[in-house]
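Lab meeting, action items carried over

1. Structure of the two-component assembly. Owner: GW. Status: complete.
Input record:
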Amino acid sequence: MFYVYLVILAVVLALTVWVLFDTKKLSLQITAAMVIVPLLLRLLMIK
Amino acid sequence: MQKHRITAIVCFAGALVASALAGASFLSMRKPDLIVRGPGVTEKKMLSEWFSGLKGTAGDTEVYVMRGSDDGASMLILGGTHPNEPAGHLAAILFIENVVPRTGTLYVIPRANASGFTANDPQEGAPQRFTIQTPNGPRVFSYGSRATNPIHQWPDPNVYIHASSGQTLSGSETRNLNRGYPGRPDGTLTEKVCYGIVQLIRQQKVTITVDLHEASPEYPVINAIVAHPKAMQLASDTVLGLEMQDIKISLEPSPVNLRGLSHRELGDFTDTLPVLMETANASQGRLRGRTDEALVLTGKDKWYVRAAKLGRLYVPYDEHGHPLEERVGRHVTAISELMNSWNLEHPEMPLEVEGVPDYEGLLTKGVGAYLLPPK
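Predicted assembly:
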């Protein structure tokens, strides 16, 4: 279950990064950057 | 390069920098606080020596054994059951660094929920740590989370079902050490820690167990001793002793239907006499204003002064607040009085100690005066 959770997390993180680089809207890029922080910290099991 | 590519790279780099800074800050909480072995400490063990299922986990925690030269009764002091209640944590540390038993044995666990010290509660704005000035320089202590770090125990169920009673509580309570007793060897990390503490009590035949807490000033059970029925005589004598020192404290019976708590389950499942003690900590209250290190140390909060004037609190509260030295002093003095009460009733099996910091001394000199220099 734990590893399934990490895989789901990694997929969501990858999609967020993809949106950040794909979109042309600056506001969406900033939002994606903010969303990346907690996802990355959880993927690394820091927070 | 297209403009939106450049902004994407900048945003991505910003996210990585923010993650690195936040990650370093969170990881720094995993370093345990310095605790100096005092003259009374005869052994430092780990809880996993009583329950091997904790070995190598974030729940394993230090147990300081302080054995007197003569046999007598024994006491287990639990600090840090809730790591956001610093007076309990510090009172346990003051025992480790100052007290020398003459008869009997003290077992002190200063960080009962060790995992809870590695994070603090989200959305509370609480400081990660606080500093106490000592004659030998500053000592820094963690201000942790009320519950086990979710990194170490996840996910929370929607409803927490207490294993031995079937009582239901909100899901996050599954990580609350003081809702998990008597614990299970094959349960969650929190239940395993509870089980380890129960094994220590059983195997060492601990006479008295004291669980040190703090509570919000608006919480009804505050400046109080909560006692299991079989510890009620001991707790009553202790309250009288404290009142004679002009320390106001109430006595509450352990509710029969509130399960998983130390003062209930340790009494039901072991032979120890369990009591739990509470002091007034504004930094964990719901009515508080700015939450910072100063609030943890001084307990001064204008909103609590206002709430007191409106009659909403269960403790007196004025502009002097309830400073940490007062709260630690109440715990330390109450433990000392528990020992005196026990010794009066059981002179054949005493628990006698020296070096307990006195209440007036703590109020005038502060907690830092009783913390040892690092070795």
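2. GW to write a short summary for the group page. Key points so far: The radius of gyration of chain A is 11 Å. Chain A touches chain B through 21 residues (CB under 8 Å).
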